[in-house]
Please model this.
Amino acid sequence: MTRILLFNPNTSNDVTDLLVRVARPSLSPGSELLHVTAPRGVPYIATRAEAAIASGIVLAVLAEKEGSFDVAILAAFGDPGLGGARELMPVPVIGLAEAAMLSACMLGQRFSIVSFSRALGPWFRDCVAMHGLLDRLASIRLLDGRFASLNTVQDEKEDHLVELALAAVEEDGADVIILAGAPLAGLATRVRERIPVPVVESVVAAVKQAELLAALNPKKASAGTFRRPDPKPSLGLSPALEKLLMSKPGATQS
Amino acid sequence: MTRILLFNPNTSNDVTDLLVRVARPSLSPGSELLHVTAPRGVPYIATRAEAAIASGIVLAVLAEKEGSFDVAILAAFGDPGLGGARELMPVPVIGLAEAAMLSACMLGQRFSIVSFSRALGPWFRDCVAMHGLLDRLASIRLLDGRFASLNTVQDEKEDHLVELALAAVEEDGADVIILAGAPLAGLATRVRERIPVPVVESVVAAVKQAELLAALNPKKASAGTFRRPDPKPSLGLSPALEKLLMSKPGATQS
Amino acid sequence: MTRILLFNPNTSNDVTDLLVRVARPSLSPGSELLHVTAPRGVPYIATRAEAAIASGIVLAVLAEKEGSFDVAILAAFGDPGLGGARELMPVPVIGLAEAAMLSACMLGQRFSIVSFSRALGPWFRDCVAMHGLLDRLASIRLLDGRFASLNTVQDEKEDHLVELALAAVEEDGADVIILAGAPLAGLATRVRERIPVPVVESVVAAVKQAELLAALNPKKASAGTFRRPDPKPSLGLSPALEKLLMSKPGATQS
Amino acid sequence: MTRILLFNPNTSNDVTDLLVRVARPSLSPGSELLHVTAPRGVPYIATRAEAAIASGIVLAVLAEKEGSFDVAILAAFGDPGLGGARELMPVPVIGLAEAAMLSACMLGQRFSIVSFSRALGPWFRDCVAMHGLLDRLASIRLLDGRFASLNTVQDEKEDHLVELALAAVEEDGADVIILAGAPLAGLATRVRERIPVPVVESVVAAVKQAELLAALNPKKASAGTFRRPDPKPSLGLSPALEKLLMSKPGATQS
Amino acid sequence: MTRILLFNPNTSNDVTDLLVRVARPSLSPGSELLHVTAPRGVPYIATRAEAAIASGIVLAVLAEKEGSFDVAILAAFGDPGLGGARELMPVPVIGLAEAAMLSACMLGQRFSIVSFSRALGPWFRDCVAMHGLLDRLASIRLLDGRFASLNTVQDEKEDHLVELALAAVEEDGADVIILAGAPLAGLATRVRERIPVPVVESVVAAVKQAELLAALNPKKASAGTFRRPDPKPSLGLSPALEKLLMSKPGATQS
Amino acid sequence: MTRILLFNPNTSNDVTDLLVRVARPSLSPGSELLHVTAPRGVPYIATRAEAAIASGIVLAVLAEKEGSFDVAILAAFGDPGLGGARELMPVPVIGLAEAAMLSACMLGQRFSIVSFSRALGPWFRDCVAMHGLLDRLASIRLLDGRFASLNTVQDEKEDHLVELALAAVEEDGADVIILAGAPLAGLATRVRERIPVPVVESVVAAVKQAELLAALNPKKASAGTFRRPDPKPSLGLSPALEKLLMSKPGATQS
Model:
């Protein structure tokens, strides 16, 4: 049985519930879905500053949960703290953006990212650059203006988001659309018939990529840039994170 | 039930058998594996010229099989004819190299491709460039010298290939190793303990990416650069391919 | 006497005739123009799938004609099968797009490609990328809508094509215009006075680049990525191509 | 009077003292140097995970100190949390790596980064990429092996570091050398005569770039990707950071 | 005392006077400002041809003044002859564009260059490329149409230039604005309140970067690509330049 | 009759004679070869500083000769002043490096530049970058050490240059070799049999590219970045150059 940890780095439990609802039907028989919500931070990470704040919290939560999962999904599009998590954890960790973008690459030459808030733009772009995928990016298209709540934004803005997707196809040359951001989970299925190119549902992509990684069953790197760092003392961090930083490479891996 | 067509664009049936043997254990319960071997071409595609020859044959075989599969794997590392197949087919098509490389991206920053014949170098490099992944490539390392047969090359050269992988990690900065080429299918599992970074088994990666694409259930693009081309007459091609080229977009899609 | 083979990979004899008519006046006294039309394929290659089909046919025709020419021009803008042909042939082979684009580089910083069918876009872009010239590309501008016939498209659409060229100069920053596609051969001369930057006639560029290569008289590479591949058996290919693939490097070169 | 905050994101007070000692002589008469050491984290940030942990702590400290400085220097080569700090703070924030690299650009075409621990490599490379300066990077050269203590590493390893610098010049084509990492502060002056190209002292570069930013007296962006984010509630963060995240753009700016 | 030579490669003395007026208030107590105007060339360098003409004159003037300054500023945005000057001179030389662009990099992710004449576009773009900063460039926006005189262009066009800056922020994604060109010296201060992102005053940036280089006190490279070339005879050049070309590396350095 | 001006921007008449001797046999019947040697400058341009000096002299000589030629070759590998010349002249101007590199692109994927003096490296690299061809460059390999004279360097160093070429093929992945620099004119023909990949003779490439440009008969751009600049007064330049700068676009063109 593969234990997949769906980890929402935002503090919004409703969004976690939504992610779980969308993720569950795509699980293979051999997979089990666990979930956790960030206990600290912001309800919805949207900026570089908020992503910086989330990065350390991501590591603290993963340190806390270490040993209870076989692969983790960082379920915030933008993948805060992904590099550090991949370095520190003995098991694979993937990002929601990473999973969606790599999956989109198999469905066309260039993808567009469509989401509900202009504030997300700089962080999303940094994320695409971090993954070395700028050449595959057609555009990032974001809604301007306010929305009533995270829980209902996908209903409230459905038509506007479809319009952005159509503009991305017609004006920016997108072959594939990614509806980005945890609060839009599940929307891809609803709007797919209104968009003339494939639409990637990020949560499904993440679950299946997690299963792929479990199937590949990669050993933890003891060389290369994602080898576990040497043990290091620390000051004022959470006990679990402090312990993980001090542990010897290999010691935490079963 | 998802019907996955494992299509070997090489003419070597033994290699097809090997691919099927390695692929089968990684299938999910809901997946069925079909296979086909190229009826024309060369036993093992290795050069730009051989890839050019294979490209048209790939389309002819896929046209012949159209309707009998839900997703196809082009099982030659180098992905001959992939773009054309993706454009023409109503269902997803992925390449063995593409699947392996995108999977490797989730396990480290840069991967190295290791294989058994120097002749493969230029084609492999073109393939990485085609997928826009040169920034993620640490190196391509290839064995020099002859080998006894395709069927036994992975046994004969196992130690040499491990040495190349170690050199890629130590000298080229590889975070991940891809043992590339259909004749090396299954080798990753055997040598993983001798290599200090994750080793991607391409065939497993391809099967799981095929299942991912089936789960995403993308519609066939009617816009963007992978929309079906308009109907076109042709001269001297196989009946199935001629018919497919003449069909109206959407007509072949269930 | 330099024997230049003008090879039309499309099946349309009328287009071949046009190409020959435009090419002939630019021949130097020491050059002789031969020509051949693809016996199989499509009347006009426009998509990735059609280019994939053409690639193998290109090699089969060149294998058939081997020994009868000193340099070959692949006269379809997009250069299908060029890499394989360059690898396999003992004499130089150039593409129509390659010749036009490299020539354009000497007349300005960035060029735009203008042609008559939207379907050509993805293939043209792949071609520019293959030649490593994306930094020199200002834009690809293509007509939308149908045209009466390949033979008359340059007359029918002359004004529209000039408008696209003007837009490329004014809006995209083009220093040079390439009117791309074999059916537009000869148009550059007719419209040059209506366009405020240099216009490259691809066929003339290709003839003169062919003469340049003949003057350089390069030896066939026995090293590097365009060395002749080792002899290889094949299945079901044309006798000439099968024989060429089986021949020893150097054996076919005078 | 310009108040420059020298902020050491590492927890090592000795390193802070060293930074201050090296920085002070380069201050202009109109500048005042303040300093602060991270109260939580690790003694010396070296990996992606440690940088992720530091990112949030950097913002918390800057929020705490907000109003008491006119420009801040993040004095860890690697610039943890820089983007978020630049976004959130009403005054300029620069990184030690950023200041050193941009200064090096004025002294040659390509620079090499030389430091004392192999563990720093991946993070340093990510940092160069984040600043868009990979084309200006000749190499990163790092010492292997252990050192006695952070406080004395520059003395202990002086000769080895000079050897790395010489190798960077001779083998990698470096026009300029950056001795990177806060524990090497002051070393550049000592070894400059032994290295045949300019050596950048990062701390001096940072102080003078801070003065430059003060002289430019830039207004806080209210548009673009570094505009202050909208007010946002948060959970479990430090009071100062929570308050800053909830403040209206402009409210904190005098 | 640091002697900073502000060198105007244009022949317009009025522009030199303006540059000096804007530069002087930003000088630190330990700095002294010298100035010189090109005795030959054009009143305002704007094109590749004019920059080519200026390049040699720049070296002749610097050779003439050699020994009288500690750092030089090439005060024409576009930095004509900068590479040659940096190679030949025993002391640091920086360009106005270089100083402004590197300073802008610390204030945002991407900058736009705004100036008063369309003719400047190609040269400015070449300059950004020469410095390897194209990834940090949001756009170059230039006024079309004539202006009354260089001396008054910043007054005459103030409103139009602000409009361009606003368009660069809103449409091109600029985080920072550079008002480029010596005749616009001083304008940044006047219009900063009308532009919602930081505006870089190039002259101030250049003076402070000059002081930074003086503080770094770099030795003249005797290796790398900016080492002094070997002595070389010449024909028909100015006596000072001829002498400098013939001098031994190191001989001119105090 | 096409009048081709072979313009040696070096002051060495012997090199001009050599260039003419190598160029003449490759002329087509309809071409006439004129030549001119720079009256001022250095015997052999090798550095950024010398190229900067040459740039203005190139324009002065071309202005002097304007009207007497139909296409000009700047016969110094490195192409000093090429952009300015292309902008200012009513007829095409090409560079020796440009012609050689673009020709090499048709003979392989990547080329190496081999020459006789280490001093040439930085300038050559800048030249490749200026032409946007860094992706096609395998390496630049240069001899270290002194040579007796420019006139005999190709004889004296023949074996060493062949060794560099072989190393470029074997170690750097070069598909094509360019023996660069006017003093090496003619060497390619002599050593071609000793090098296992095509060797480009730059002078022949330049003559044939000049004939190609004449055949294309491009009009002078009145738009784009190579349009003639507006008339401009100047100070202290040669009468011909002053007159050309003051002339109206179009006035000098027949």
About this structure: Chain F touches chain C through 55 residues (CB under 8 Å). The longest strand of chain F covers residues 2-8. Chain F is about 40% helix and 15% strand. Chain F has two domains: 2-96+206-246, 98-201.
